[in-house]
């Protein structure tokens, strides 16, 4: 290691100078010829290398605080990356730092062994020479020379030459620095002046920075969606920004609109002084001020324009004129061929509300605003978008006049951070708009967004009022409609007439199909409806989805919904809305609305149709309820009529039973006592008449529905049909043939299970219906009787079906309910009006159901469903003894004739019989253990048979009690057993019945 006093290099080099003055003067002249610091530094490096032959030459300059040295220029390391050619150290550190701190020349060989040496490269120099740069006794840096290939020190003559040259170089560097400071001051004045040019300030300032700093500056800003862009709109990555910082670029942080920005100047290998950084910071501040002033001016202009537009809005009621005036004002900002205003319709569509310049005058245009569309890009970015040739953009949509538009600016209309619409500005030639046009469009959109939003809200309010008016009209109208078809037709007609929908359909669910019941629009109801609107399965298409989910749906683009089923007679359908009609929480039908405009339906439209569907459902439910109330009212009237008739017939039946009991009993006693054949024949005739009278009374009780007994016998319905036809054959064959007409009777029977019922009553039912069918065919015809198993869901249990169909004159639908009323007849004096009343009573007694289908001139069909039922267990009655033991019997009845005949019958069988005319008399003479059997009438004055039986049971629990009554059909056997009655003897009774009852009760004692 040596210092500046070390011996000179013993090995001469090409740098050996015999006369240094001439080269120094020549090189000094070059160095001093420029006042540009970069040029001066470069000249000094080259001259020093020529004078010294050094491998690497570096110029170190002090900062303004005289604390740090920076390698301002380096020659000889061009093969190294830029960041390896930029060095920084404190004054006093390293060889150059020591030379500056002590203002002395330092010449060192083998510097690795010198503690002052700080390695900066991956290889070490063999020799270092550091010369301080001093002007006017102020050291502002150092000139550093290094040898790597030659390990000998610099010769003394070289050191002296370089020292003389360094003094001249220091003067040149100082002059260039002073000149640079003057240029920076001038540049500041110009930048300050440029900042007053609000709309061109940034361009002018950037140009000035490029001239002064010798490098193109970049203004990097942050977009609202946090992307980085430079002033040319080119993207910048975070990595690029970090690399600029690492490579020593000048960089100033800014904030534009609250978002970070950077003003950057970058020149590889360039030494930047503090004056450069200060100038850049000053320029950045002026750009921010210019932007602020521009913002204030735009805000003022926007406020003034907004005030004018608000005044315009208040002055004009016609919102179309307001929108048209907005587009006229837009023409003053941006020269266009056409422009449109769209407002948000829903999440996926925007709707045209105003246009200027388009060739077509379409008033219903919608644009898709979902993913992949230009509108979606606008909503996502929140700022204006410009396409020089929009026909080349994949998301460009085909709408009226879209094929002539080339240059396109889209501006989102934002109100309170919400995009309420889009302003589109068009030129019909490509590349027709400038960046200034885009900025003006963005500014105009910001100005008019609130006004357009007010117009949009006004339009929506007017649309709501219109919809409410339609609802009011419909509500007022449906109150006068009493027919479902009229109601549906009124609804479809009103929707089509009020809103001009392409097609309105209302379908009703019938079974598993949808049947169109009302249609208005492109296809009208009545135009071969079955051909135009064939039934559809309830699972088909979008309507099937609505029915299965019981929810309304809007499909604003049917081509994008796989559920849609194309209707061949509605080719223009582009959008569809379907709303279910609910009646008593069950889907009754659907309202289908078709539009030829894609994206046309809104939530408001859905609300209106849903409200109408609700009104339809409520009205239909009310109509159904009214019909049910009317039926219930008619049934109540019929029930009151039947109750009155039943009370009358019940009393008549009781009296008849008492008379018949006396007659039948005495006749049978006489038959047993008389041997005269002629008397015997006469008595037998009286007996038959009495028995027929018994049957008549039984039917009268059944019609009056006073019988509590239920049909419980096994019945073969097919056999009942065959027997009924056999019994009526004289009417439908013999009598018809005698009148010269033909009645064709057909049977279509199917194998049926045995049902539980009353065969006699069912035969009477079939006979009545067959006779009615014969009466309905005065000119002849056909009667068809069908039987078949019935679905279990009709009655809720296994059932069979009986159908009786004729080809007669038919029945007016208005009379379908009345014909079942007692005494109502369509046959005039030929009918009693009881046949169908009895028939319905029989069906109801069997727990079945009976329906009627008929119309004038179209014949009649009665359809009857009867439950199969389960037959009750067969009780084996105790066989009476042929020689029943004699006993003491008490007979109680207020009717003397009945009491006497019963006493005579009992005495005939050898019983000891006592009698009483009332319950009180019977109790007075009753003694415990004296009577084995008490036969008491049920209906007696003062004390009934029930009461007498209860008193006797308290006195003698072992006595057998027989209830003798003409109301036997009214008495429930369970009730009789609960009242401890042992047997019931029905009036009128035969001798055989009396004998059997008495024998049975005595056998069970």
Kindly list the characteristics that best describe this protein.
1005 residues, six-stranded antiparallel β-sheet, 43% helix, alpha+beta, elongated
Task: Describe the secondary-structure layout.
Blueprint: H1 21-31, H2 37-52, E1 56-62, E2 68-75, E3 88-90, H3 94-102, E4 106-109, E5 127-135, E6 138-147, H4 156-194, H5 201-213, E7 217-222, E8 228-229, E9 235-236, H6 238-246, E10 250-256, E11 259-265, H7 274-315, H8 319-333, E12 338-344, E13 349-356, E14 366-368, H9 374-381, E15 385-387, E16 407-415, E17 418-427, H10 435-478, H11 484-499, E18 503-510, E19 513-521, H12 529-532, E20 536-537, H13 541-549, E21 553-555, E22 575-583, E23 586-595, H14 603-673, H15 677-703, E24 713-715, H16 717-738, E25 743-748, E26 755-757, H17 759-775, E27 781-790, H18 792-795, E28 799-806, H19 835-845, E29 849-854, E30 860-867, E31 888-892, H20 896-908, E32 912-916, H21 919-925, E33 933-937, H22 945-955, E34 960-965, H23 973-978, E35 983-986, H24 991-1003
Parallel strand pairs: 25-27, 31-32, 31-33, 33-34, 34-35
Antiparallel strand pairs: 1-2, 1-6, 2-3, 4-5, 5-6, 7-8, 7-11, 8-9, 10-11, 12-13, 12-17, 13-14, 15-16, 16-17, 18-19, 18-23, 19-20, 21-22, 22-23, 24-26, 27-28, 28-30, 29-30
Helix pairs in contact: 1-2, 1-4, 2-4, 4-5, 4-7, 5-7, 7-10, 8-10, 10-11, 10-14, 11-14, 14-15, 14-20, 16-17, 17-19, 21-22
């Amino acid at each position: 290691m040596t210092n500046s006093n070390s011996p000179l290099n013993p090995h001469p080099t090409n740098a050996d100078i015999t006369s240094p003055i001439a080269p120094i003067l020549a090189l000094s002249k070059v160095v001093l010829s420029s006042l540009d610091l970069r040029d001066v530094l470069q000249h000094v490096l080259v001259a020093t290398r020529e004078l010294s032959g050094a491998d690497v030459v570096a110029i170190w300059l002090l900062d303004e605080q005289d604390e740090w040295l920076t390698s301002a220029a380096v020659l000889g390391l061009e093969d190294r990356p830029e960041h390896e050619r930029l060095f920084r150290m404190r004054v006093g550190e390293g060889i150059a730092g020591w030379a500056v701190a002590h203002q002395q020349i330092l010449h060192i060989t083998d510097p690795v062994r010198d503690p002052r040496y700080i390695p900066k490269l991956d290889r070490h120099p063999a020799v270092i020479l550091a010369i301080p740069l001093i002007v006017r006794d102020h050291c502002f840096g150092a000139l550093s020379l290094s040898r790597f290939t030659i390990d000998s020190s610099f010769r003394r003559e070289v050191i002296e030459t370089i020292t003389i040259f360094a003094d001249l170089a220091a003067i040149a560097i100082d002059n260039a620095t002073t000149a640079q400071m003057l240029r920076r001051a001038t540049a500041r004045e110009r930048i300050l002046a440029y900042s007053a040019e609000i709309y061109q300030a940034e361009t002018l300032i950037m140009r000035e920075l490029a001239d002064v700093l010798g490098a193109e500056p970049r203004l990097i800003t942050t977009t609202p969606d946090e992307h980085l862009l430079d002033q040319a709109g080119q993207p910048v990555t975070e990595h690029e920004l970090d690399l600029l910082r690492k490579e020593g670029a000048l960089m100033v942080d800014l904030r534009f609109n609250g978002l970070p920005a950077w003003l950057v100047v970058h020149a590889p290998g360039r030494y930047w002084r503090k004056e450069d950084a200060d100038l850049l910071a000053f320029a950045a501040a002026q750009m921010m001020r210019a932007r602020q002033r521009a913002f204030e001016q735009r805000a003022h202009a926007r406020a003034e324009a907004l005030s004018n537009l608000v005044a315009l809005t208040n002055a004009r009621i016609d919102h179309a004129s307001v929108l048209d005036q907005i587009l006229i004002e837009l023409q003053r900002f941006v020269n266009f061929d056409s422009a449109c205003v769209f407002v948000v319709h829903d999440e996926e569509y925007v709707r045209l509300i105003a246009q200027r310049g388009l060739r077509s005058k379409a008033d219903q245009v919608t644009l898709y605003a979902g993913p992949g569309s230009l509108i979606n890009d606008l909503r996502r970015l929140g700022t204006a978008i410009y396409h020089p040739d929009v026909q080349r953009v994949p998301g460009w949509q085909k709408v009226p006049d879209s094929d002539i538009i080339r240059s396109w600016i889209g501006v989102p209309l934002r109100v309170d951070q919400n995009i309420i619409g889009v302003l589109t500005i068009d030129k019909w030639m490509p590349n027709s708009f400038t960046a200034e046009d885009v900025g003006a469009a963005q500014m105009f959109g910001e100005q008019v967004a609130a006004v357009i939003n007010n117009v949009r809200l006004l339009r929506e309010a007017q649309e709501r009022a219109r919809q409410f008016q339609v609802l009011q009209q419909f509500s007022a109208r449906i109150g006068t409609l009493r027919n479902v078809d009229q109601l549906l037709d009124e609804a479809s007609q009103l929707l089509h007439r009020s809103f001009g929908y392409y097609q309105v359909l209302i379908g009703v669910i019938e079974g598993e199909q949808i049947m169109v019941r009302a249609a208005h629009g492109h296809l009208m109801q009545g135009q071969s409806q079955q051909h135009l609107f064939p039934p559809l399965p309830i699972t088909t298409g979008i309507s099937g989805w609505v029915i299965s989910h019981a929810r309304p749906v809007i499909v604003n683009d049917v081509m994008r919904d796989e559920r849609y089923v194309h209707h061949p007679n509605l080719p223009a359908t582009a959008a569809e809305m379907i709303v279910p009609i609910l009646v008593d929480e069950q889907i009754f039908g659907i309202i289908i609305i078709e539009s030829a405009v894609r994206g046309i339906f809104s939530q408001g439209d859905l609300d209106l149709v849903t409200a109408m569907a609700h009104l339809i459902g409520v009205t239909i439910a009310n109509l159904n309820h009214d019909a049910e109330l009317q039926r219930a009212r008619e049934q109540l009237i019929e029930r009151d009529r039947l109750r009155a008739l039943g009370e009358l017939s019940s009393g008549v039946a009781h009296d008849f039973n008492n008379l018949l009991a006396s007659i039948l009993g005495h006749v049978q006693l006489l038959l047993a006592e008389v041997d005269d054949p002629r008397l015997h024949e006469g008595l037998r005739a009286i007996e038959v008449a009495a028995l027929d009278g018994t049957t008549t009374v039984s039917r009268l009780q059944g019609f009056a529905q006073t019988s509590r007994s239920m049909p419980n016998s096994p019945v073969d319905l097919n056999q009942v049909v065959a027997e009924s036809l056999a019994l009526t054959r004289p009417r439908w064959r013999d009598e018809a043939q005698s009148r010269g007409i033909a009645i064709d009777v057909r049977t279509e029977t199917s194998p049926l299970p045995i049902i539980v019922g009353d065969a006699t009553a069912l035969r009477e039912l079939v006979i009545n219906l067959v006779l009615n069918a014969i009466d309905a065919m005065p000119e002849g015809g056909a009667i068809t009787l069908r039987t078949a198993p019935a679905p279990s869901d009709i009655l809720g249990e296994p059932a069979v079906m009986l159908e009786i169909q004729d080809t007669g004159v038919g029945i007016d639908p208005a009379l379908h309910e009345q014909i079942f009323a007692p005494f109502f007849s369509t046959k005039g004096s030929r009918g009693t009006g009881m046949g169908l009343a009895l028939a319905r009573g029989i069906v109801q007694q069997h727990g079945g159901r009976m329906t009627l289908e008929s119309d004038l001139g179209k014949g009649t069909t009665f359809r009857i469903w009867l439950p199969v039922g389960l037959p009750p267990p067969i009780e084996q009655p105790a066989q009476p003894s042929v020689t029943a033991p004699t006993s003491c019997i008490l007979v109680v009845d207020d009717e003397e004739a009945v009491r006497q005949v019963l006493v005579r019958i009992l005495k005939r069988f050898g019983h000891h019989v006592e009698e009483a005319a009332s319950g009180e008399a019977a109790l007075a003479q009753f003694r415990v253990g004296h009577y084995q059997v008490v036969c008491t009438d049920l209906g007696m004055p003062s004390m009934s048979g029930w009461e007498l039986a209860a008193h006797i049971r308290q006195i003698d629990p072992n006595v057998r009690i027989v209830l003798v009554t003409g109301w036997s059909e009214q008495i429930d056997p369970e009730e009789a057993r609960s009242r401890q009655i042992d047997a019931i003897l029905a009036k009128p009774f035969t001798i055989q019945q009396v004998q059997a009852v008495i024998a049975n009760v005595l056998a069970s004692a």
